[in-house]
């Protein structure tokens, strides 16, 4: 099981070493190990696979470019008609070398961008997506040299991204707080209390003896007027 804290250290240190010409290759190896740690932590194997393809493609491009460059230097140069034919004969191999290196650089940047976009989504660290996009733009513009400046900016974002990794991966819905629900308290039904009426005073009819209310004026039995 990978560790995000290890990925943070490996990627951050590796990103810094990339700036140093003599230790650039070591830095990329550390970055490759960092993506492996992240891939195992978030359980997404394609993150490491895309980074590995980016590294392999970049190495193939560098090897092919080096071989073609050495072959170009060892190729005999024509001495007759140099400005007419010799310059063309020298420029074509150079363009082939440059074009080969450029194509493999773009392919490598595409795989690296895919890997960094997945890391950005899984770890909620946006500088990874920015670094991946800048790597692709810079690789495409290296043909006009301004791409090297963009690649330098991409490497800066790469260092910031790795040092922004949290020690634990965010859970689902990590950036959005859970909505609060308020449960309505059950209403307690009070028992019905019968209304108590005050007792009514009574009296008796002096003529027939019937029981009457004290406020009765006539007897309800005999009709006699009550005193």
Rg calc: 45 Å
The strands making up the biggest β-sheet line up spatially as 1-2
Q: What low-confidence regions span 5 or more consecutive residues with pLDDT below 50?
A: 79-86, 173-179
* Share of helix, binned: 55-70%
Biggest β-sheet: count, sense, barrel?
2 strands, antiparallel
Mean pLDDT: 79
Q: Structural class per helix/strand content?
A: mainly alpha
Percentage of β-strand residues: under 5%
Write the element-wise H/E pattern from the N-terminal end onward.
HHHHHHEE
How far from one another are the termini? 107 Å
Q: What's the shape? A: rod-shaped
Number of strands: 2
Number of helical elements: 6
List key phrases describing it.
227 residues, mainly alpha, two-stranded antiparallel ribbon, 2 strands, 61% helix
TL;DR?
The protein has 227 residues and is an all-alpha fold. The protein has helices at 4-17, 24-41, 45-74, 82-123, 126-141, 146-163, and strands at residues 202-204, 211-213.
Describe this structure in words.
- The protein is mainly alpha-helical.
- 61% of the residues lie in helices and 3% in strands.
- It contains six helices and two strands; from the N terminus they run ααααααββ.
- The chain has a two-stranded antiparallel sheet.
- It starts with a helix and ends in a 14-residue tail after the last strand.
Write the layout of secondary structure elements.
Layout lengths: L3 H14 L6 H18 L3 H30 L7 H42 L2 H16 L4 H18 L38 E3 L6 E3 L14
Antiparallel strand pairs: 1-2
């Amino acid at each position: 099981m990978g560790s995000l804290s290890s990925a943070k250290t490996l990627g951050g240190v590796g990103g810094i070493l990339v700036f140093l010409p003599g230790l650039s290759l070591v830095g990329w190896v550390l970055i490759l190990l960092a993506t492996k740690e992240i891939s195992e932590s978030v359980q997404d194997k394609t993150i490491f696979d895309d980074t590995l393809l980016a590294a392999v493609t970049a190495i193939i491009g560098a090897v092919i470019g080096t071989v073609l460059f050495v072959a170009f230097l060892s190729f005999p140069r024509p001495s007759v008609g140099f400005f007419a034919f010799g310059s063309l004969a020298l420029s074509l191999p150079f363009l082939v070398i440059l074009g080969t290196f450029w194509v493999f650089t773009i392919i490598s940047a595409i795989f690296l961008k895919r890997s960094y976009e997945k890391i950005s989504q899984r770890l909620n660290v946006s500088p990874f997506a920015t670094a991946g996009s800048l790597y692709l733009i810079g690789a495409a513009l290296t043909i006009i040299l301004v791409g090297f400046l963009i690649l330098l900016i991409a490497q800066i974002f790469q260092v910031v991204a790795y040092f922004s990794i949290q020690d634990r991966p965010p859970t689902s819905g990590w950036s959005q707080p859970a909505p609060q629900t308020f449960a309505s308290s059950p209403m307690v039904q009070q028992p019905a209390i019968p209304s108590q009426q005050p007792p009514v005073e009574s009296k008796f009819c002096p003529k027939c003896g019937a029981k009457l209310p004290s406020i009765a004026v006539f007897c309800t039995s005999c009709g006699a007027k009550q005193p």
